[in-house]
Amino acid sequence: MNRIKMIGLAGLILVLAGCTETGTVYVTGPDIEAPAAPRGVTSTTGNGQVWVDWLANGESDLAGYKVWRASEANGIAGGPYTHIATVGPSVTTYTDLNMANGTTYFYAVSAYDDNGNESALSPEDVYDTPRPEGSSLVQDFNLHPSTAGFAFTNSAPYGSVVAWNSVSADIYMEYSSADAAWFINATTVNTDLQDMGYTDGFDDVSYSPISGWSSVGWVEAIVGHTYIIWTSDDHYAKIRITAIGSPSTSGVSFDWGYQLDTDGRGHLELKPAVRPQHDPATYLRRTIAR
């Protein structure tokens, strides 16, 4: 039996030797190589929701992504994370719905391939705090004093049109016929304003500035501009002017968002260490008796 095997092997060698083409035969084992961890993970704040986005992986055998979340109650970013969603290989966004406004959530993304190999979690420190938002119209305080103020307020309902001199008002609108322009005015010396310039959309500004706050307590209201308001009770808010109408029959329309947390970890997150100090005699356009 051994002799027959040896003869067969010798014959095989002779046959192979007579071939005119040669090639390399590769022997592969099981695929145990995981995809790279997803990169470029970012979040966008919404009202009771958070949008999570990331850059696409490039592996040919990529099967999809898993989205992970840790809540503020778990302590810090880094876990423990809970798997909340799985999406296909062509999807690079996920909307986390029905979240609690004012609670901070941490996010990470992993990738997995056709053989079940899964990457480590994405390395970015990504967190977000959903907050209430809405749309409003506020009028000129000279002609419509009872509907010229806006209060973000730190308890529901959020975002209310109030009298310009209401104790709850954070800002009020004013039309100046001399300047042919509208202005956003702070109501107290401890309310700070900043014009962030033109933005394509409401979500283009997702941070609060370190410096550059108004030194006079008012800024011109311009369609398409986004403004940050640092309220006197240490919350951040933003508005984006969407339309400006006649001071006699209409007013200033804007989208607004109000961050409930005050620890600097909300999406308006770069919190200055010290609030700017202003001279009450020169900061406000007028002193409000309320």
Structure write-up:
The protein has 2 helices and 17 strands. The protein has 290 residues and is mostly beta strands. The protein has 2 domains: 42-128, Sandwich (Immunoglobulin-like), CATH 2.60.40.10; 133-283, no CATH class.
Characterize this entry briefly.
7% of the residues lie in helices and 33% in strands.
Question: Tell me about the biggest sheet?
Answer: 5 strands, antiparallel
The tally of structural domains comes to 2
> How confident overall, as mean pLDDT?
86
Q: Tell me what portion of residues adopts beta-strand conformation.
A: 25-35%
Please trace the helix and strand order, writing H or E for each element. Answer: HEEEEEEEEEEEEEEEEEH
N-C termini distance: 110 Å
Structure class: mainly beta
Q: Kindly state the percentage of residues in helix.
A: under 10%
Main-sheet strand order equals 8-17-16-15-13
Low-pLDDT residue intervals, each spanning 5 or more residues: 1-19
The tally of beta strands, per DSSP, is 17
Cα gyration radius (Å): 30 Å
So how many helices? 2
Shape: elongated
Descriptive key words:
mainly beta; Immunoglobulin-like; 33% strand; 290 residues; disordered N terminus; five-stranded antiparallel sheet; 2 domains
